[in-house]
Amino acid sequence: MSEVKEKILNEEDQKISVESGEGASDNVLEVKHLCKYFPIKAGLFGRVVGHVHAVEDVSFTLKRGTTMGLVGESGCGKTTIGKTILDLTPKTSGEVIFNGNVHLDKMSSKELRAFRPKIQIIFQDPYSSLSPRLPVGEIIGEAVREHNLVPPEEFDDYITRIMEACGLHDYQKDRYPHEFSGGQRQRICIARAVALNPDFIVCDEPVSALDVSIQAQIINLLEDLQEKFNLTYLFISHDLSVVQHISDTVGVMYLGNMVEYASKEEIFANPLHPYTQALFSAIPVPDPTIKMNRIILEGSIPSPSNPPSGCKFHTRCRNCKGVCRKMAPRTMDMGNGHTVACHIYDPESGYATEEESKPEE
Amino acid sequence: MSKKDTNFISAREARKISKENNKILKKLDGRLSRKNVPESEYLTTMKDPGNVVEFDDLHTYFFTDVGTVHAVDGVSFNVPAGKTVGIVGESGCGKSVTSLSLMQLLQRPTGQIVSGEIRLNLGDKAYDVAKMPIDAMRNIRGNVVSMIFQEPMTSLNPVFRIGFQLDEVIKLHNTGMSDEEVKQRSIDAIKMVGIPDAEGIYSRYPHELSGGMRQRIVIAMALVCNPRVIIADEPTTALDVTIQAQILELLRKLKGEINASIMLITHDLGVIAEMADYVVVMYAGRVVEKGLANEVFLDPRHPYTIGLMESKPVINKKVDRLYSIPGSVPNPINMPDYCYFRDRCEKCVARCEGKYPPECHVTDTHIVSCWRYFDETKGGTGR
After folding, report:
1. In DSSP terms, which residues pair with B134 in a beta bridge?
2. Distance CA A58, CA A33 (A)
3. Nearest in space to B213 (alpha carbons), one of B247, B260, B180
4. What is the pLDDT of residue A355?
C-alpha cells in the first residue's frame, strides 16, 4: 500500500515539475502526419500495382498518464497505427516522437533495443500471443532478463510481484499457457508488458476476445495498473462503451483517416462528424425502454486500396453534397481540442451554400 | 494449493469412463439412427398451442473420456409464436448447445439429449425433437427450424456459388418445384434481405462479398423455406457495430414479414434488450432467470443477472469502476449439487448451502432460480 502511495506522491511531484516547464516529457507520444501504405504486388515479378492506404495523415498527441481510445470499424487502420507507432511495421512518412525527443526511426539498433522496454503492446488474442512452450514465469520474465532490468538475485521476487499486481498467483509461475482460461491469459499478456516498466502501452483490442464478466476484470486491472505505474495507454477497440469507460481522449478512424478527435466528454456529448454520429447511435443499449433514434449506415466500408475520391465517407454519408465527392475535407479545430474532418464545419468549403444533391449512383 | 490434482485423470480411469460411455452412447445413438420409425413414437402435444417450441427439462450431456459434461442441465422455457426470445450468458453456459439440441446438430455420438422434451409445434401436430430419429429430422431442419450461425464465412461453402447454395435448400424441401421456380425463389430471398443486385449476387461466390453481405445471404438461406423458428446464434458478433445495426434492423423487419419466432443467442445484453420480447439468462447449463424483457432488464433478481448487467460498461452511464463477478465459471464436469453460482455469489443466504434452488415465480412470467426469493414467492411455486 505504501508503495502505491509513494508512486502517487511521485506522480504529483512529476506533474508539478512538468507544469513548471522543466521538460517536454509531458507528451509521451506525438504523432505527426503519420502515413502507412502497403504495396499491392502483382504479376510474376511482384511489380507494385497500387497501395493500400492503411493510415493516412494521422496526427495526435498523448499526455503522460492518460488513455487515448481509438475506435472504428474493422479495416480502418486502428491496428496499423498501433503497430506503426511502435515501429513494428515501418512507416511510410510522418513523424512519431516519444517523450518529446525520441525518434525510433533515427535510432541505431543498439539504442532502439535499449528503448524498446519503454514501449509495449498487448495483443487482442491471448490464445495466439503466448508461446505454448514456455512456462508463464519465463514468458513474463524473458524480456526482463534480456534487458537486465533487475539484478539476477532479485529476479524471482520481481516476477512474483508483477504477477501479483496483475492478479496472478506465485504458484502459477511454472504452468504453461494452455492451463489458463482466456481472462487469465490476457493477464499474463498484461504482466509481460508491465514487467518491463514501460511508459507507454498499445492495447490492441485487449478485451474483444473475452466474455463480458471477464472484460470487466481486465478493464479494472488496466486501470489499476495505470494508476500504480503511471502508464499511458493507446486503447484500440471497436467497442465504444469500453472506450468511453477507459479513455480520456477518443479518436475516431474511418478508412485510414482520423475523422474526429476530442476529449471523451466532448465527443460523446457532441459528436460532430456524421460517421461518429452514426457509429454512436448504432451501439445497442441494454435497456428495453430506450428506443434509439438510430442512424443506419448503408453499405459497408469501401476498399482501402481504392478509396473513394474526396471525403472517403461520402459513399455512406447522409449529408453528402457535391463538394464532398470532389474535395478531401480539411481538419478543422472546433475549440476545446475537438478536431473534425468534415466539410460541414469548414466555412470555406462551400458546403453550406451548396444545394442538396443526391448521390450519383 | 493442489488445484492441479483435481482435474487429473489416470489412464486407467479414462479407459473405464470411456468403456461406460460406449455402453450408454450405443443405446442413445442407436435410437436416433433407426430407420422407418413410426411417427407415433415422437408425436406429442403442446402444453400451450400458442408456443412454437417448448423446452421441457432438457438435459444434454457430452460423454467425454474425462467425464460427463452436463452442458445443458434441466433447461425449460417456451418460444411463443411470432416472438423473439433472447438467450444470454457467458461462453460455455450451454446457450448454443440448447439451440443445437433443437436442431439435433449436436456432435455425435458424444453429445446426446439424455432426457427431457423439446416440443416443436408444426401447426396441425407437434413433434418431440428429443425423440426424433435422424432421417425424420432432415425434413425439419431448414424447413421448420433454421439457423443463422455466428461466422458468416464458415457457414457458406466457398467453392459453390451463392445461388447454388440457396437453390439446394429449396430443392431439398420442395421436390416438385421446377428449376426456374427455384431460381426465382432464391432471387426473391436475396431481394428480401435488402441486397440490391440480386441476380448478380446469385452467381457470385461467397468470398466476393463483405461480411455484412454474407451474413445477409446466410439469413436469406435461413428464411427461404419460411421456417416457423429461426435460431440466430450470435448473428452479429463477428460484425462491426454499424453492420450489426443493419443486420438487427433487417431481422426485426423480416420477423414481421414472415411471422416466425426468433431464438436469439448472444452475450451482448444490448442486442437482447433491443430485439427480444422474452429473455432467458443461462449460467453453467441452467436457466437462472427468465421473463419478459422489461421485467428482466428493469428488475433483475438473480445475482448473476445483476452482475452481468453491471459488468458491462454502458454508453453515457458513468461508473468509476466496473463491477466484476468474482471467480470464474465452475468446471462443467462434476458440478456440485448446490446452486452453481454460490461460490461466486456475494449475496448468499443460509439456504444456499442446500440443494439447487427451485424456480421462484416473481410474477407469472418472471421466474428466477435463487433461494433469496424463495420465501417472498411462497415456496417457489408462485401463484
Report:
1. none
2. 5
3. B247
4. 67
Geometric angle at alpha carbon A23, from A20 and A26, rounded to 5°: 90
What residue ranges of chain B have pLDDT lower than 50? Answer: 1-4, 380, 382-383
Which chain A residues are closer than 8 Å to B246 by Cβ? 296-297
Rounded CA separation A151/B329 (Å): 39
Residue A13: its H or E element? helix A2-19
Could you confirm whether domain B142-276 is CATH 3.40.50.300? yes
- DSSP letter string, B124-152: S-EEEGGG--HHHHTTTBTTTEEEE-S-T
Task: Report the C-alpha gap between A158 and A164 in whole angstroms.
Answer: 10
Q: Considering only residues A18 and B73, tell me which one the structure prediction assigns the higher pLDDT.
A: B73
When CB atoms are compared, the residue of A244, A286, A292 closest to B269 is: A286
A330: distance to nearest CA of chain B, Å? Answer: 25
- Contact between B105 and B46 (Cβ < 8 Å): no
Q: What is the DSSP string of A257-292?
A: EEEEEEEHHHHHHS--SHHHHHHHHTS--S-TT---
Domain ranges of chain B: 12-82+95-132, 142-276, 303-383
User: What pLDDT score was predicted for residue A120?
Assistant: 92
How far away is chain B from the Cα of A181, in angstroms, using its nearest Cα? Answer: 9
A49 touches chain B (CB under 8 A): no
Predicted confidence band of residue A7 (pLDDT cuts 50, 70, 90) = very low
